[in-house]
Specification:
heterodimer; A: alpha+beta; six-stranded mixed barrel; two-stranded antiparallel ribbon; 12 helices; 12 strands; 18% strand; B: alpha/beta; six-stranded mixed sheet; four-stranded antiparallel sheet; 10 strands; 36% helix; globular
Chain lengths: 401, 225
């Protein structure tokens, strides 16, 4: 029997029972569509997070004091830092050619007060480099002035939310606020930017790093943000930072450098795993469709018993009957998959209309996988009915009217 | 051509086993016209099914054109059925969703005959049985006589050596029954071996040779030589 004839024969058999065939196609289509839609959602989430990371700034390395490594024995309650990461360490890094900018950061919490209002917020101590590294933008005024970072001047920049809470609609520029036990003159207000790596940039006050160190009475830094000269320079920068700090810390490897890429790829992996598990859940609906196909094919076999008997009588071997019924399941699954893909694209279109910010796209591999899985389900669940048909006794099959 | 020796076939019915065929020895030469007769339950149909390779004997040897059938695999048996044997059934057994022409075409599709060659052969077969204008009709749009003629066209399309007819007129009125018998006898006159199961003595008497079965044994055989 020729392949074309098998397809034609099976297609005719399917079109002979319209309602049943349409129901099976619908079940398969829903299964395939849910697989594609859910993977697309997962993929969209991955892209969304990746984009958020990009907005953090480009080619960034984060230097943390202390060494994170696995050692035996009970873990220390706090990261043990035998030596602080100092402002001098940070400034020393700027001398390297692969490093473009360095922003030392001190973090503390203090009350910011103006007249009778005061708010407890996060105080960031940094330099003018932070502006470019974190890609901030100003609503009013200007950012911290360039100058010797070791000398703290009494100026500050407020986050958008903090400014609103303290000043309402008034312009705060030139006003003096009290932060902790010191007074600072407001020179700028940050534009609304939203969250960035868990830190709400609307609810902070930024002061020169030396002022912050004085304020919190510390000589160590919370971390240092380093911007490399380009994407290719990132690994080199990492090496340079480690060796520079080691030299300055008497051969002691006591900082940890995290690259943005490493962070990104970690999140990437997590989200990919999430996408796959969601796709796995969706695959359950596909297997439901498969069971439906099996059921309906079993009914089809018992309804077409005499036909099977006849085919045997006019010279079809058992294997041929098996192939005919398997071809029917396969054709059903494929048609179902095609409709499922159409359904999925309609769904993603709808989602992208409803949530324009969410970057939902159908990944090509999901399409291929969905069709493949649909075909496999059809074939696997088609085997049982097809075998039953192939094993029918022709005499008994024909004795039924 | 067909040689059955010591054929037995038993069916379990409840606790007992029923001998549908009991030590049957039977030979049919090429081009014969044989009527197998007997009361219902005498094993007529079982005998025909065994000759047609739809059923396997429990004991005995069946050779068709010097080929030991009982030793063939499923695929080989299917090939013998496809190329050497044509079936005509009491209930026609046409595929209801296919047109008359498609039903006739079916054996050639299974045999893998080229589509270009199939169409003219189907048309020739249908027109020789006066069914040209019914080619596109489905079985439920045809009369009983027309259905049986489509079935005969299907049985002969692969140009078999033997036609096995199981009560071919059993479901037809008198006139279309006669029509169908005449067509089958025509085939016999053109050299095909015709073996027909019937319980109608009038039909049986038309055959050159009559075999009578009772309780799974051949009791009379007018042409046994």
């Amino acid at each position: 029997m020729k392949v074309g004839d098998v397809i034609q024969f099976s297609t005719k058999a399917l079109s002979g029972y319209t309602v049943r065939t349409l129901l099976m196609i619908l079940a398969m289509a829903i299964g395939v569509a849910s697989v594609i839609l859910l993977t697309s959602l997962g993929e969209g989430a991955r892209r969304y997070v990746t984009n958020e990371f990009r907005s953090l700034g480009t080619y960034i390395l984060i230097v943390l004091p202390g060494r994170s490594e696995t050692t035996g024995g009970p873990p220390p309650l706090l990261g043990e830092t035998p030596r602080d990461l100092t402002l001098e360490d940070a400034l020393f890094l700027t001398r390297n050619s692969v490093i473009r900018r360095v922003a030392p950061i001190t973090v503390g919490s203090a009350a910011v007060s103006w007249k009778h209002r005061d708010r407890e917020v996060t105080i960031l101590g940094s330099t003018d480099a932070l502006f470019d590294i974190r890609q901030l933008s100003m609503a009013r005024g200007r950012f911290l002035p360039a100058g010797d970072p070791a000398r703290g001047s009494a100026v500050c920049v407020l986050g958008y939310k903090l400014k609103n809470e303290l000043f309402g609609n008034q312009s705060p520029l030139g006003e003096w606020v009290r932060i902790g036990d010191r007074r600072f003159r407001i020179i700028g207000v940050l534009a609304k930017k939203g969250q960035s790596l868990g830190l709400d940039m609307g609810d902070v006050a930024i002061v020169p790093v030396a002022s912050a160190q004085a304020l919190f009475n510390t000589s160590g830094l919370f971390r240092v943000l380093v911007q490399a000269n380009g994407r290719d320079a990132v690994p080199k920068a990492k090496k340079t930072i480690l060796s520079t700090i080691r030299k300055r810390h008497e051969g002691e490897d006591d900082v940890t450098v995290i690259t943005q890429d490493a962070l990104l790829s970690t999140f990437d992996r997590i989200l990919l795993a999430m996408t796959l598990s969601v796709a796995g859940i969706a695959a359950i609906s596909l297997s439901v469709a498969g069971i439906l196909i099996m059921n309906v094919m079993l009914i089809a076999v018992s309804q077409r018993t005499t036909e099977v008997g006849l085919l045997r009588a006019i010279g079809a071997p058992g294997g041929q009957i098996l192939r005919l019924f398997l071809a029917e399941s396969a054709i059903l699954s494929l048609i179902g998959a095609v409709f499922g893909i159409i359904l999925a694209f309609l769904g993603t279109w709808g989602i992208s209309r409803a949530f324009p910010v969410f970057p939902i796209t159908v990944p090509v591999w999901a399409l291929g996988a969905a069709v493949l899985v649909a075909l496999l389900t059809g074939l696997i669940f088609g085997v049982l009915p097809a075998r039953r048909a192939a094993r029918l006794d022709p005499v008994q099959a024909l004795s039924r009217r | 051509m067909i040689r059955l020796t010591g054929i037995e076939r038993t069916f379990p019915v409840g606790d007992e086993t029923v001998h549908a065929l009991n030590n049957v020895n039977f030979t049919v030469r090429k081009g014969e016209y044989v009527a197998i007769m007997g009361p219902s339950g005498s094993g007529k149909s079982t005998l025909l099914n065994i000759i047609g390779l739809l059923d396997r004997p429990d004991k005995g040897v069946y050779t068709l054109e010097d080929l030991d059938i009982t030793e063939l695999t499923d695929d080989q048996q299917a090939s013998v059925r496809r190329n050497k044997i044509g079936f005509v059934f009491q209930f026609f057994h046409l595929v209801p969703r296919l047109s008359a022409a498609e039903n006739v075409e079916l054996p050639m599709i299974l045999a893998g005959v080229d589509p270009v060659e199939r169409k003219p052969r189907v048309q020739a077969a249908l027109s020789s049985l006066g069914l040209s204008d019914r080619a596109k009709h489905r079985p439920d749009q045809l009369s009983g006589g027309q259905r049986q003629r489509v079935a005969i066209a299907r049985a002969t399309i692969m140009q078999p050596d033997v036609i096995l007819a199981d009560e071919p007129t059993g479901n037809l009125d008198r006139t279309s029954g006669i029509e169908v018998i005449q067509i089958l006898e025509n085939l016999h006159n053109n050299g095909i071996t015709l073996i027909m199961v019937t319980h109608d003595p009038d039909l049986g008497n038309r055959a050159n040779r009559r075999v009578r079965l009772v309780d799974g044994r051949i009791v009379t055989d007018t042409g046994n030589s």
